[in-house]
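Reviewers of the previous submission asked for a worked example of the structure-prediction workflow described in the proposal, so we include one complete record here. The input consisted solely of the amino acid sequence. No template or homolog information was supplied to the procedure at any stage.
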Amino acid sequence: MNDYNFYSELCSLTNQMLSGLSDWFWQEQLWFPKGLGWADLEDRDGRVYAKAQDLWVALPIALIFLIFRQIFERTVATPLASLLGVKETVRLQVPHNPTLESYYCNITKNPKQTPIASLCKQTGFSERQVQRWFRRRRNQDRPSLLKRFREASWRFTFYLLAFIAGLASLIDKPWLYDLKEMWQGFPVLTLLPSQYWYYMIELGFYGSLLVSVASDVKRKDFKEQIVHHVATILLISFSWCVNYIRAGTLIMLVHDSSDYFLESAKMFNYAGWRNACNYIFIVFAAVFIISRLVIFPFWIIYCTWIYPVTMYEPFFGYYFFNGLLMVLQCLHIFWAVLIIRMAIRFLTHNEKVDDERSDKDETDESEEEEEQAKKDMRKNGPVQNGHTVHNNNHSKIE
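From that input alone, the workflow returned the following structure tokens.
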């Protein structure tokens, strides 16, 4: 009986805490300017407004994206990769060594000089043999060109279709041409069906990216990608709840305008179509800089930062929304530096475009491993376990 009373009181206390937290979280002064509130977004007179509970729809959409992606990669991306000459890489298999394998899995994949000396004593290998073993072991875990091609083709397909759909839904809207129109009548802005689905599909897609990021190819900007996905999800969700939908649709359109160029450049890069990759990348760089470093900060952020305060006093939601936009802008600057660096290298030295976020490191070490394996074959005959070295250097298509 005492245990029952204890758990009953605990449940009652928990419910009170959750209720108090909910009341604090949804208080109107956090979300709306003074004098406005949730009552202003109640459906009336045949007009429909965005509601927070609508966001739950994004969860099954995210699940559908995850399932459909697996189907797409198998039935569309893989045949397309074969058509373009992208093949599954056969990696060199290292001889099994329990000591080195344990160190690789449990401590680090990149041992320093002192641990290498210790491992040499434990295994009887030379320092060069230990370094080569770890290099080949890391290479075994690297994603193949086919895996990277599948991911790029999936994102290319979504970003292209999302940009076309977003442009179609906004082409006849006045706030696409006059940004001040996005605040006319705020917050009593009627929700259109096209806006509803545009929001839910984008939110579901970024939710699926956040879930799949653990299994996707790891890049050097992995942490920045996580920040970007989280900030984007918060931005979409918050702008929906407070009816910043017109601003939100413009922000999503700007972001989708360049991403499909990048993904298509990657696809051609993995296929070995160097010229196509390079020129598409230059187009991507130009669109990215114009959309992310000019239109986004000087038009959209300016309009969300300056114009609203002429209509109402700043409030928490105003600062929160613009703060998220500034987080995205910082990421845009970070990526723009990498993009400009690659574009300058291509334009001044006519070098091939490499993805500085990840592909450069992966490709360099992979190619180094293949070259070492070729030397080993010339000296020692067939490589370990009977596997042959697969050549990833496809011919250029002029």
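The longest helix spans residues 316-349. We consider this example representative of the routine output the project will generate in years two and three.
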